[in-house]
Structure formats: C-alpha cells, structure tokens
Specification:
- The chain has 13 helices and twelve strands.
- The chain is of the alpha/beta class.
- The chain folds into three domains: 128 residues, no CATH class; 177 residues, 2-Layer Sandwich (Nucleotidyltransferase, domain 5), CATH 3.30.420; 37 residues, no CATH class.
C-alpha cells in the first residue's frame, strides 16, 4: 500500500463542514488522516493508519494521534447530528427514501477488554466468538446509502447474576456484615438492570432523535424485527410515517379497516401490483436461502470490508463510539467521491455504472498524486534515493 501524504481533497471536502466541532486544527488534521486511513489502509487500526502516513515536518507520536481521535475534547455528541444535516440535502427530491434500522454483530477477537464485546456461539463460523452488538440507522435511495447513527449495545450478564443470587440465597442472615454484603449484591444487580438497554430501546432513541431533527421529512421506515416494538410503531404512525418489517404469513394485520391474514393480503398484492410487490431471495450468513416478499428492496451496506467497522482496538466506550461514527462518515465520503464511469476491462462488470470501488480508486489517485508531488520535490532538492526512502519508509 502506498504511503499517505497529507489529506486527500475528497476527504478534506467531506469533513470541512465539521471543522467547528474541533478545538484545534491539529486535532482536526488527525481526524482527517484517520478517516483517510479507514478508507485506504489495509490495516485499519490506529497503529496501521499511523504507520502508513508520511508527515510534512515534525512527526507526532502515535500517542498524540490516539489522543486527538479518541480522547480529545472535541464535540463528539454533535458529530452525527451534523453529519445527518449535511447528507440530508442529497436525500431530497431523489425519489423514495427509506430509513432502515437494523442490528449486526461486529466480530472482534481482541477479547472482553474492549467495550461492548461479549462472547457467544456463532452459528455461521460454528464456534464461540467475541463480538459487539451494533444497532444502526441507515437512509437509502436508488443512488446512495448513508449511515445516520451507530450505537454499540453494552452487554450485561443479568441472567448469570440472577443465577448467582438464586443459588446463594438464604432464609436468614445471622451476621450483620453478611447481610450488608447481600444487600450490596442485590443493589448492584438492580443497578445493572436499570443501566441495560435493549436493542428496541436503542432503536426507539435513534428514531426519536431523527424525527425531532426533521432532516428527512419524506422518508419512511423499515425495521429488522429485532429492533421493533409496539410503542415505536405507534409513535411513527402518530407522526404520519409508514413503516414495514418482516411479518409471519400467519399474522393478522389491519388492512383497509379489516383484520386479515398476511398471506391473503400478499396474494392480492402479487396479482394487482406485480411491479412493486416482488419476491426477494436472500442467502443468510449460515448458507441457507430464504424467500421474502418485499415492497422495497433495501441494500444495507455497513462498511465492514471498506471502512474498518470491526477494526477498532480501543477499549473505552467513548473511543469505540467515535471509531464507529467515523467509519460511518467515511462511507458517506466514499459515495460522494467524484468518480467517472470507467470503460476499462477491470470494471467491465459495472456496465458503465460508477461503483464504490471506482470511488475508492479516486481517493487512491489523490493519494498517489500527493506522493508523486513529494517525490518530485525531494529529487528537485537534490535528495538521493536512500534519503527519499528514509522519508517515505523510515527504517
């Protein structure tokens, strides 16, 4: 992979609207370099990104970059609302808009020391694995998909705690110290229950925030069943929003004022509205295929392979949250890169359409241009090949 010289123009333009959220220009430059690394670096950890950069004058330490990205006092809570306000312009007058709320498992083999990581059996890999449960909100149309929010669900061992409390329960406690310890155990369990947020609660908070901001007045909602509940549907209907989700064919739904089975309604729609109600065959992660009947086919692309969603090696909650948010913003920047439809054999499969790979290549070309400019400057200054190598790839 080529060394990264400076900040590509596409990245600089994509983050320019967030400059006022950062106290110092140096910190904002570190953020820009980190986002560049999420897109271009094969190793999307902070260490891998830091090692790939070539610094202009004074080389900052890796610790300084870590502090600027994950620990500095820039306005992290305002980052995603600002991002939503910026992408909202590209989602107006572009046809049907759908906000999709879903959840995914971000696999992380670094273990339990990282915030949000839990251990459970993976049905796909057929083994016990470490992962983070991530709730996402994404808005999509025919042209692009933008992340609106990313929240990691903090796991709590409530069942294990309750099992311990039941196994160690006594009818009476003769010693005051023993009784005191027991009360503390019960209070800690109660505190953990109050702190625990289910996926449905996280989704409810995300939807409320999006609706209160009012950036997407024409968008309706699609939900994974794991983040949907009755209160959320009533809230959306009170605001005049439509919503869809996966429903069992034997369920009864309100259809034009009557309770009717879903499969009966589906049979009518397949006959009367063939153009919009169509089957979608989906291959699950475990290899099985399942067929759905869908009104709108939404492609939920989250960036595990492109922008390093699963690559964070930070432990604290705030640092993990910042990494996920920057990864989501990096995906939006990629989709807005000024790429042209390629006619080369490499992209023949795209049939003249612009792909995300071509947009990443555009950013790569900007990195290459900066690298060539630096090489030209160093040779013009009389530097030898050995000196040039030391600048680009220090021993």
């Amino acid at each position: 992979m080529l060394p990264i010289i400076g900040i590509p123009e596409t990245i600089a333009q994509g983050l320019a609207g967030c400059r006022d959220l950062f106290c110092r220009m140096e910190g904002f430059a570190h953020i820009s370099r980190y986002v560049t690394g999420l897109i271009r670096s094969p190793n999307k950890t902070l260490q891998g990104i830091y090692d790939l950069h070539v610094w202009d004058r004074h080389t900052p330490s890796r610790r300084a970059m870590h502090a600027a990205v994950f620990a500095a006092g820039w306005d992290s809570p305002a980052f995603m609302p600002r991002h939503r306000a910026q992408v909202a312009y590209d989602h107006r007058g572009r046809g049907r808009e759908v906000i999709s709320l879903d959840w995914t498992l971000a696999h992380h083999e670094r273990g339990p020391h990282i915030f949000g990581v839990d251990q459970a059996y993976d049905d796909v890999q057929k083994r016990t694995a470490w992962f983070q449960t991530v709730v996402t909100a994404v808005i999509s149309n025919r042209r692009m998909i933008d992340g609106l929010e990313v929240i990691v669900q903090e796991p709590k061992a409530l069942k294990e705690e309750m099992g311990y409390l039941e196994a160690t329960a006594k009818d009476s406690y003769e010693q005051m110290e023993e009784a005191r310890n027991r009360v503390l155990e019960l209070l800690h369990h109660h505190k953990h229950r109050l702190e625990y947020r289910q996926r449905t609660e996280i989704a409810w908070e995300i939807v409320q925030q999006i609706e209160e901001e009012g950036q997407f007045p024409q968008a309706h909602y699609a939900f994974d069943t794991g983040v949907l509940n009755l209160d959320l549907t009533r809230y959306l209907e009170s605001r005049g929003r439509h919503w869809v989700s996966e429903v069992e064919c034997s369920r009864h739904i309100q259809w034009y004022g009557q309770w009717r089975r879903v499969d009966v309604v589906a049979a009518e729609l397949r006959q009367d509205h063939v153009e919009s109600f169509r089957p979608v065959s989906v291959q699950r992660r475990n290899g099985e295929r399942k067929q759905f009947w869908a009104f709108t086919k939404i492609f939920h692309e989250f960036g595990k392979q492109v922008t390093g969603l699963e690559a964070a090696q930070v432990r604290k909650e705030e640092a993990v949250t910042r990494h996920f948010r920057l990864s989501g913003v990096a995906q939006s920047i990629v989709q807005r890169a000024p790429a042209c439809a390629s006619t080369s054999e490499r992209y023949a499969f795209a049939e003249g359409q612009i792909t995300d790979g071509q947009k990443c290549r555009t950013i790569g070309r900007e990195v290459m241009r900066s690298l060539l400019a630096l090489i030209k400057q160093l040779f013009a200054a009389g530097k030898s090949c050995a000196e040039l190598l030391e600048v680009l790839m220090p021993a």
